[in-house]
Amino acid sequence: MLFDFSGTIFRLEEDESWGEELVGADGADFDVEAKAEILRRMTAPVEQFMTFDAAGQHAWDNRDLDPALHRHAYLEVLRSSGVPTEEQAERLYGRLIDPLAWTPYPDTGPVLEFLAAQGVPVGVVSNIAFDVRPAFRTRGWDRLVGAVALSFEVGVIKPEPEIFLAALNELGVDPARALMVGDSAHADGGATALGSRFALVDPLPTADRPDALVDALRAHGLAVPR
Questions:
Q1: Which top-level group of life is the source organism from (predicted)?
Q2: Rounded CA separation 203/102 (Å)
Q3: Which of 25, 117, 118, 126 is geometrically suited to a Cys-Cys bond with 5, CB 3.0 to 4.6 A?
Q4: Residues ≥6 apart with Cβ < 8 Å to 211
Q5: Which CATH architecture has domain 2-10+103-220?
């Protein structure tokens, strides 16, 4: 079983402390829609939101392969999204790359526990430029995940087959016996080129998506309890 990270088993979400970062130059708080749009731009898996100069476009195209390029690209995105100061943009970017700032979906833990109890090997495959392992380790879930293939470590991004194979080979699983669960048909669906199955989930706020992982697994024959 393979899972994407962002928008699939974890999500970056606003909390009360975001108010410090999202205050306009006139001292007024950003409205709810503006905050939501900034979050979307920080976490959307493939969509490009702006026109970059040559250096910025190179950074955007390769952001998930190199932490420095990732920082360059997302600071430009934050500036273009109306974040008024460099300091605010830096703080927001710090949240993006802090795995402990990400919120797990309600069924992430139960699904991982169920799969472990059934002896199903689990891997995480993510286009990302920072280490997500602490998000699992701090919750004791690292024992439930047998492989983590991150694009900036593997040197290739989804939908290329090599990143899926990196996880599957570590797990010792034939691609034809694997199910990839993710929120991007383009990126995560690349696993189907190897003969794996694919289940799409919607990257909704965690409060609005209590059991999509359970439903995805049940649709592929795994009777996860609700």
A1: Bacteria
A2: 13
A3: 126
A4: 106, 107, 226
A5: 3-Layer(aba) Sandwich (3.40)
Positions of the chain with pLDDT under 50? 24-26, 28, 32
What would the pLDDT profile of 41-79 be if each residue is shown by its tens digit? 666 655 666 677 899 889 989 999 999 999 998 888 888
Q: What is the pLDDT of residue 37?
A: 61
CB atoms within 10 A of CB 145: 23
What is the DSSP pairing of strand 2-3 with strand 102-104? unpaired
Q: Are 179 and 196 in contact (CB under 8 A)?
A: yes
Domain ranges of the chain: 2-10+103-220, 12-97
DSSP strand pairing (102-104 vs 10-12): antiparallel
Bridge partners for 2 per DSSP: 123, 180
Q: Which two tokens stand for residue 74?
A: 């997302």
